[in-house]
């Protein structure tokens, strides 16, 4: 979405809808990998068309096509030896087997929105499997199910559903250019989370290529692995190629509103009370929006003229940064509205922050490095507190009032600018310590944050991984480790924050 400036005044927007250098490797190393691909492929001419090395004229274009964070476009960012853009699962099988044979790591990219660039950057020799060509979506409106390939985007899924039904939707995120492969495997939340939970809560099957090149579905992979990939991050366990979804029902018409308030308009008191109101609203709040807000949050001053009644797909336009008047077809575009440098962090709030606590936040938000900073407050409660924390690896359920996504954006290139802005968000994160969850201080895996701890990508240890693993997964972390130990004991699928195997 477009990133607002708060350099001159502090602005809050309340939106309610039904509710954005080469690794060291010899040329022989690379030739051996390509020769292996030809041996393991049904058709060498077919796979050669989807393999790109630094010598291909299209290499840079393809690499940068899905990079959403400009921090990882510099010449010093480590680049993949090879990019493979498979058109079928057999090409993924060949890529995995040949990477194993030649000691090369795998990174899988579906949309490129991962916040720390782990799907396309690494300090060790690696291959990117870019799933952009695997984006088929099949909707069965009568049975309320869908199959979506992992290279499709959230926007493409929403648009495809809207072409089949006005009263079906899926509870995923608000940014339309995010790829479903990573989004779903980390949990995935949006405006429907209080009604239907996370995207991962509504997944009923999947297809995955494992470390041995086998293509597995839910039955053949077993319930342990199927549990792990729905919220535990798929990149630790294999290459997910498709998801089967339960679609959810929405009204033909929903109501959205956006009400800006500045500090001079009592925004501090409003957001302080919001902490008590938003998590406790009925999960069907969209049915009685005006009456409900009038009873529980009159201070916000929402009037009928602030509200717009639209179809659910048009509410997705609004939450995705578009106006509701544009054609929903824009959701199918893979081109983001903005592309900037950014750094993000996440927190969970379990006790309301006092008004004095917010005053310290505002001081930080008035600093120069916060000119494009955002703090996004996502209310919990509703369905989110009903689902047990062990149902899937995503543990942040009952007991959380809301989640905060801390973001700072900038458009200045260079390391010095990056250090300045990253240091600012680290200071904000430090300031928030007394007001957020503790033991552990929880974080959301889809808002990757390497400040929380980094694995040695050559030999990940349990001790290293538990530093950040307990923050992302809490009590579910050890279960993820057990699944990893069974399905990928050699730790082939690894990155700077992957689940490690443990051998006793």
In short:
The protein has 504 residues and is α+β, with helices and mostly antiparallel strands. It contains 15 helices and 17 strands. Mean pLDDT is 90; it is low at 1-24.
Mean pLDDT: 90
How large is the count of helical segments?
A: 15
Poorly predicted runs of 5 or more residues = 1-24
Strand order of the largest sheet: 6-7-11-9-10
Alpha carbon gap, first and last residue: 47 Å
Q: Percent of residues in helical segments?
A: 25-40%
**CATH homologous superfamily descriptor of the domain at 27-67 and 78-133:** Uridine Diphospho-n-acetylenolpyruvylglucosamine Reductase, domain 2
Shape: globular
Largest sheet at a glance? 5 strands, antiparallel
> How much of the residues is beta strand, in percent?
15-25%
The secondary structure category is alpha+beta
Write the CATH architecture name of the domain at 27-67 and 78-133.
2-Layer Sandwich
Organism: Sesamum angolense
Family: Belongs to the oxygen-dependent FAD-linked oxidoreductase family.
Pathway: Alkaloid biosynthesis
Signal peptide: 1-26
Structural account:
With 504 residues, this protein is an alpha+beta fold. It has a domain of 97 residues: Uridine Diphospho-n-acetylenolpyruvylglucosamine Reductase, domain 2 (2-Layer Sandwich), CATH 3.30.43.10. The protein contains 15 helices and 17 strands. The strands form five sheets. Strands 6-7-11-9-10 form a five-stranded antiparallel beta sheet. The protein has a four-stranded mixed beta sheet with strand order 2-3-5-4, with helices on both faces. Strand 6 and strand 7 form a beta hairpin.
């Amino acid at each position: 979405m477009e990133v607002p400036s708060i350099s001159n005044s502090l602005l809050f927007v309340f939106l309610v809808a039904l509710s954005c250098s080469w690794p060291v490797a010899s040329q022989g190393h690379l030739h051996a990998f390509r020769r292996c691909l030809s041996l393991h492929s049904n058709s060498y001419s077919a796979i050669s068309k989807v393999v790109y090395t630094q010598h291909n004229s299209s290499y840079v274009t393809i690499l940068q096509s899905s990079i959403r964070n400009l921090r990882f476009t510099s010449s010093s960012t480590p680049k993949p030896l090879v990019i493979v853009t498979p058109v079928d699962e057999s090409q993924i099988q060949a890529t995995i087997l040949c990477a194993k044979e030649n000691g090369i790591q795998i990174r899988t990219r579906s949309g490129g929105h991962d916040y720390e660039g782990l799907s396309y950057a690494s300090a060790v020799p690696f291959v990117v499997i870019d799933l952009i060509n695997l984006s088929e979506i099949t909707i069965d409106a009568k049975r309320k199910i869908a199959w979506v390939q992992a290279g499709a985007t959230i926007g493409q899924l929403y648009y495809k559903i809207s072409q089949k039904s006005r009263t079906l939707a899926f509870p995923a995120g608000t940014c339309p250019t995010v790829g479903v492969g990573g989004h779903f495997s980390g949990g995935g939340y949006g405006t429907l989370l209080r009604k239907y939970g996370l995207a991962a809560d509504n997944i009923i099957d999947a297809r995955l290529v494992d470390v041995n090149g086998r293509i597995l579905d839910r039955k053949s992979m077993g319930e342990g692995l199927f549990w792990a990939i729905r919220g535990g991050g798929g990149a630790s366990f294999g290459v997910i190629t498709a998801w089967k979804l339960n679609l959810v029902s929405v009204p033909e018409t929903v109501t959205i509103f956006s009400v800006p308030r500045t500090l001079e308009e009592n925004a501090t008191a409003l957001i302080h009370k919001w902490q008590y109101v938003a998590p406790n609203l009925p999960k069907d709040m969209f049915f009685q929006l005006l009456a409900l807000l009038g009873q529980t949050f009159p201070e916000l001053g929402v009037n009928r003229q602030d509200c717009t009644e639209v179809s659910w797909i048009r509410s997705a336009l609004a939450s995705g940064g578009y106006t509701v008047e544009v054609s929903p077809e824009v959701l199918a575009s893979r081109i983001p509205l903005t592309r900037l440098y950014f750094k993000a962090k996440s927190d969970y709030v379990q006790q309301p922050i006092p008004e004095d606590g917010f005053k310290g936040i505002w001081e930080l938000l008035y600093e120069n490095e916060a000119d494009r900073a955002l703090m996004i407050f996502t209310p919990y409660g509703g369905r989110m507190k009903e689902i047990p924390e062990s149902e899937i690896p995503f543990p942040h359920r009952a007991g959380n009032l809301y989640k905060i996504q801390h973001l700072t954006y900038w458009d200045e290139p260079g390391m010095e600018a990056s250090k300045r802005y990253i240091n600012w968000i680290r200071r904000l994160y430090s300031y928030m310590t007394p007001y957020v969850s503790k033991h552990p201080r929880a974080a959301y895996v889809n808002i990757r944050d390497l400040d929380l701890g980094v694995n040695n990508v050559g030999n990940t240890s349990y001790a290293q991984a538990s530093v950040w693993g307990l923050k992302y997964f809490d009590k579910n972390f050890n279960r993820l480790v057990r699944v990893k130990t069974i399905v990928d004991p050699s730790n082939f699928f690894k990155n700077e924050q992957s689940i490690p195997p443990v051998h006793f």
